[in-house]
TrEMBL record:
Name under which the protein is recorded: LysR family transcriptional regulator
Similarity section: Belongs to the LysR transcriptional regulatory family.
Keyword Transcription: yes
Pfam family, one: HTH_1
Keywords linked to the UniProt accession: DNA-binding, Transcription, Transcription regulation
Organism classification: Bacteria, Bacillati, Actinomycetota, Actinomycetes, Streptosporangiales
Species per Swiss-Prot/TrEMBL record: Actinomadura soli
Length: 192
């Protein structure tokens, strides 16, 4: 049995909850799709879908297995991505994203630390925002990234956190109480 192919069919049917739409999306006829799902159910020893003439629903085991199936498919795509990079001669490259406003000192420190730890690998840095990095990391287009929080990190493995102090620039005519910190209330401009 082609487990990866069967899992791909399972995920598409679970997303569509309709065998006809899933078959169309997969570019195959409905009967072979139904047979693949039945073979997968036999192999796993659980029923994945409740089927009737009017609807298709995931069973409790199907709901449990859906995230695992998606994870396996993501990992398989990464394997193909790594193999493709190796075929193109990019196997020794780490693709990393950094925000464009990270600052030269921090970027230089990250590059130096990377070279100290992994002199055998080439670092390919790309300036990109957090949302785009999260998508690229999930898709396998990036291997690592420096993201700004808050962000959706459910699919990411987080490493060390960097902190950057924030500052406020004000016009010289702006009066503030003499204090070591500034609150948002201090920054409210008077209205006329």
């Amino acid at each position: 049995m082609n487990l990866v192919g069967h899992l791909r069919c399972f995920v598409i049917v679970a997303e569509e909850l309709h065998f006809g739409h899933a078959a169309e999306r997969l570019g195959m006829a409905q009967p072979p799709l139904s047979q693949r799902i039945q073979r997968l159910e036999r192999e796993l020893g659980v029923r994945l879908f409740d089927r009737s003439s009017r609807r298709v629903e995931l069973t409790a085991p199907g709901r449990l297995l859906l995230d695992e199936a998606r994870d396996i498919l993501t990992r398989v795509e990464r394997i193909y991505s790594v193999a493709e990079r190796a075929r193109r001669g990019e196997a020794g490259t780490v693709r990393a994203g950094v925000p464009s406003d990270l600052g030269g000192t921090i970027v230089a420190a990250l590059i130096a630390a990377f070279r100290d730890r992994r002199p055998d690998l080439r670092l390919d840095l790309r300036e990109t925002g957090t949302a785009e990095q999260v998508r690229a990391l999930a898709d396998g287009a990036l291997d690592a990234g420096v993201v700004r929080h808050p962000c959706d990190s459910r699919e990411l493995e987080l490493g060390p956190m960097l902190a950057q102090p924030l500052g406020v620039l004000l016009p010289t005519a702006f009066s503030l109480p003499t204090a070591t910190s500034v609150s948002y209330a201090h920054l409210t401009l008077p209205t006329n």
